[in-house]
């Protein structure tokens, strides 16, 4: 099977109302367009499901949480329309997460790169293990974290976003990410992470659904223009990704 067609997104709903949206891809949990579209559908479905009180975003079967966009898919793109559609994928997921009327909790068990940082930033509350180092790698391959930028900047602030964007080869620790408010909690082990996740979501499920929904609206007030903004940002990345610089950089990256 073509590697772009591999992987899955599934939703596991617990008896107490926690919808675990789980994604996996064999290439370091990268996300091709198909899986991004499935994530959008999963968040939309969880938002409509009356039995789902809280949503958890997590990945599985690999030590990396998410390595971002699929370079296997990107390297084959030759035209702007396809490139725009490709880069719009993460924007659609970010928008689906912010529009989801349920509180979205991030479980970041391992490294997050590029779009993976964007996913963590688009959660309402994010917890991680000490292995969850972060990096915005986009500039190194000829474009930048334009699409996920608003979500990252909203969490960490403009100066920290600039620090991350301009240092694409630098890994930053989970504790650093916590100090910048990307993560709210960091644990020594994944087992401790999961124990706290269970405790935290159990508490959330005991609270008023209406109050949680109103809090969700309040958290994201001022982002109503993001549908247009993230599409505009995707156009920037889509144009830059067609450059010779990017094509050469990605080809070199894939040979490593």
What is the β-strand count? 8
Q: What is Rg?
A: 17 Å
Major sheet details:
6 strands, mixed
Looking at the overall shape, the CATH architecture is Alpha-Beta Complex
Order of helices and strands: EEHEHHEEHEEHHHEHHHH
Low-confidence stretches: none
Number of domains: 1
Strand order of the main beta sheet, please? 1-2-3-4-6-8
Shape: globular
CATH topology: 2-enoyl-CoA Hydratase, Chain A, domain 1
Q: Please count the helical segments.
A: 11
Based on secondary structure, the structural category is alpha/beta
- The CATH homologous superfamily name equals 2-enoyl-CoA Hydratase, Chain A, domain 1
Beta-strand percentage? 5-15%
Measured between the Cα atoms of the first and last residue, the distance is: 23 Å
Mean pLDDT: 96
- The top level CATH class name: Alpha Beta
User: What percent of residues adopt helix (DSSP H or I)?
Assistant: 40-55%
Could you list some keywords that capture this structure?
2-enoyl-CoA Hydratase, Chain A, domain 1; two-stranded parallel ribbon; globular; 14% strand; 11 helices; alpha/beta; 256 residues; six-stranded mixed sheet; 48% helix
């Amino acid at each position: 099977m073509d590697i772009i067609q591999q992987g899955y997104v599934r939703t596991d709903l617990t008896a107490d109302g926690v919808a675990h949206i789980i994604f996996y891809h064999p290439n370091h949990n990268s996300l091709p367009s198909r899986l991004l579209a499935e994530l959008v559908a999963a968040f939309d479905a969880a938002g409509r499901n009356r039995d789902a009180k809280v949503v958890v975003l997590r990945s599985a079967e690999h030590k990396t949480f998410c390595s971002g966009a699929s370079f296997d898919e990107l390297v084959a793109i030759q035209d702007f329309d396809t490139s725009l559609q490709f880069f719009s994928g993460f924007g659609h997921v970010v928008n689906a997460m912010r529009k989801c009327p349920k509180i979205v909790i991030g479980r970041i068990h391992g490294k997050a790169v590029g779009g993976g940082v964007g996913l963590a930033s688009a959660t309402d509350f994010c917890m991680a293990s000490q292995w969850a180092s972060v990096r915005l790698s986009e500039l190194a391959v000829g474009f930048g974290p334009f699409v996920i930028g608003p979500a990252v900047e909203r969490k960490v602030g403009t100066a920290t976003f600039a620090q991350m964007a301009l240092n694409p080869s630098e890994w930053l620790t989970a504790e650093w990410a916590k100090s910048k408010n990307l993560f709210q909690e960091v644990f020594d082990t994944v087992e401790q992470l999961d124990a706290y996740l269970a405790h935290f979501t159990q508490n959330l499920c005991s609270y008023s659904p209406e109050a949680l929904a109103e809090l969700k609206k309040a958290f994201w007030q001022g982002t109503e223009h993001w549908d247009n903004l993230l599409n505009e940002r995707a156009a920037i990345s889509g144009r830059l990704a067609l450059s010779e610089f990017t094509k050469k950089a990605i080809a070199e990256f894939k040979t490593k």
